[in-house]
Amino acid sequence: MSNEPVRHPPHSEATSQGEGARSFPRVSRRGALALGGAAALVGGGALVIPRWVDGASSPVYMTSTDPAVAAAEQARRRTGRVIERTLTPAPSRIDLGGRVVETWSYGGSVPGKPIEVTAGDELSVRLSNGLPEPTSVHWHGVALRNDMDGVPDLTQRATDPGATFDYNFVVPDPGTYWFHPHVGVQLDTGLYAPLIVADPSEPGRYDEEVVLVLDDWTDGWGTPPTELLADFRRDGMGMGEMGGMDGMDGMEMGMPSADEPLGADTGDVSYPAHLINGRVPSAPVTVTSSPNRRVRFRIVNAASDTAYRFAIGGHRLTVTHTDGFPVVPTEVDALIVGMGERYDVVVSTGDGVFPIVASPEGKKDPAARALLRTGTGDVPPLGRRPAELSRQLLSYADLVAAPNVELGTGQVDRELTLKLTMGDEGRRWLFNGQTFEDHEPLAVAAGERVRVRLVNDSMMFHPIHLHGHTFAVARRDGRGARKDNLNVLPMQQIDIDLVADNPGRWAVHCHNAYHMELGMMTSIAYEV
């Protein structure tokens, strides 16, 4: 992909014949232990009866090769088209706009070239690993078949250097998605790209469309990601349980506020640069349009340690989608995009040259910048902060699911709890007191409506991402926004509801890449 904004028509027409794919499932290192007797209390107190096989003392969970996984894939609606692509991650020299860095990328560009399909298409992608270490591809936000989800030690083996792996799956839902590795801190290189899934029934109330990918950058410029991770393993990270201060006063000072909506500690890495579509602020991409046009911006946060406050100078944002799913349109001046989150917004363009700004929330790093040019005028000075960044900010409470994607109300069949904590002075980040290496899966059964209570007992926000499903932010009227990525604030409890309709074993993790690598990952596992 060039460094110019990504543009594409509403529907992709590329069609070809794909090839089959193989998976290499591997169950996590530690199976679920018996909880004592045939029944146990979990999470929010729901009574769960595990299923037993041949008198075994542990519940039995599906793996990614269970026949139910293939059956769910066969049941998906299909267009009959097969879209073929090849991904070749490899070491690359990338010009970020006057600064050339050595990094890893897909096909020699940052971001990688977008993949565009229509909902119901089958996507056939051959991964050809040109890296010096194993890698994988995770299709972020897509409710795909479990054996194609790209999570080593859960759904497949990582693909070795010089080897190939074929990803084959139906893309079921329209929306803004993206893809990236799920190995180590490879995400904090240039290995990411958009996946845009068109909706053939969408009314298309806009004139043009642009994809903007936000990223924090250090690879080949500042401290390498692997060294950052090693430093955190040795020295710890973050403000931790008490915000690095004493007692309740310290906690209160670190809590979210109007000025600090994510709290006082929003990240652990100070980055040399923040990018929009692979360009530094001094050499920005330019979105060229005309006055009085309705432009749809698809915004993807591919950063590893940075949430962004996003605004377009001189314009209001009409939010139409979050994490791919439509919401009742709501107008704001700015929004915070957590790591892994996506938003679609529509703006009615003015006349002139306007800054598109992604300011690192809670960090002193310079903001990322692009330009919107619709007419004549001077380019805004570098570093100018649009007034919109300090005006009306979107909150999750503002988001209401569009009627066609409401999860609705219903009897909750199972309640689970995930507690988010720090351990060993920031050398470990934990779910329910466990790292991924030691975790007990969260058990669900096919067809259940499941409520998960996310309890953040730390003084940092965590962008929690669920694989293979979209959930609804719990509301009494059943109209909570449908998402797969959610910012959980310091000391906050928030409930999400999901329907267990995609069998397998699915990762749940913090999308701060360093928190995840230090342990903040678990799984939801379907019982056999």
Task: Write a structural description.
With 528 residues, the chain is mostly beta strands. It folds into three domains: 28-62 and 223-260 and 406-528, Cupredoxins -  blue copper proteins (Immunoglobulin-like, Sandwich); 76-199, Cupredoxins -  blue copper proteins (Immunoglobulin-like, Sandwich), CATH 2.60.40; 213-221 and 272-399, Sandwich (Immunoglobulin-like), CATH 2.60.40.420. It is built from four helices and 33 strands. The strands form eight sheets. It has a six-stranded mixed beta sheet, with no helix packed on it. A six-stranded mixed beta sheet has the order 24-23-26-31-28-29, with no helix packed on it. The protein has a five-stranded mixed beta sheet with strand order 14-22-21-16-19, with no helix packed on it. The longest helix is centred in the middle third of the chain and has 11 residues, at 225-235. The radius of gyration is 22 Å and the shape is globular. The two termini are 43 Å apart. The model is unreliable at 1-56 and 240-245 (pLDDT under 50).
